[in-house]
Specification:
The chain is built from seven helices and two strands. The chain is mainly alpha-helical and 151 residues long. Strands 1-2 form a two-stranded antiparallel ribbon. Helix 3 crosses helix 4 and helix 4 crosses helix 5.
């Protein structure tokens, strides 16, 4: 049945996108990286690494949290020296959140842990299959229902 592939992919994505799945992954990625870095603050760090300096509201839209929640989590990360607030050059009344060097180091560590975990999970796959999966996953993200220009 033609629709079966779509359902199979939707089921797998549903498992990947569950909040509990993300929280479990974030806990593993942030283990031992400091008291301020956990499954709640990880999305703020990771989001800032993707977007660069931005407002709490813009970051909230990027990571799916409201501005108030982002601000609370940013407070913890700022106290730990992982992000800083800086004036918005385009609007002197506004403040931007930005990673510090220490924050970038923590993000690099989490990304390395993630890449290693993915590579470990694919270790039993033939290399051609793993490479094809990576290529096709990129294509799906770029062209599929999650693409920014997809309606």
């Amino acid at each position: 049945m033609k629709n079966s592939t779509g359902h199979d992919i939707a089921d797998a994505l549903g498992l990947l996108l569950r909040r509990s799945t993300r929280a479990r992954l974030y806990t593993r990625l942030t283990e031992g990286l400091g008291e301020a870095v956990d499954d709640l603050t990880y999305p703020v760090l990771s989001g800032l690494a993707r977007t660069g300096a931005c407002s709490a509201a813009d970051l909230g839209r990027e990571i799916g949290l409201d501005r108030t929640t982002v601000t609370r989590r940013a407070d913890r990360l700022e106290q730990a020296g992982l992000l800083q607030r800086q004036p918005d050059p385009a609007d002197g009344r506004a403040t931007l959140l930005a990673l510090t060097d220490d924050g970038r180091t923590v993000v690099a560590a989490t990304r390395q842990r993630l890449a290693t975990g993915i590579e470990d999970s694919l270790a039993t796959w033939p290399q051609a299959d793993a490479q094809a999966f990576a290529r096709l996953l990129h294509r799906f993200v770029d062209e599929g229902p999650f693409a920014p220009d997809h309606d």
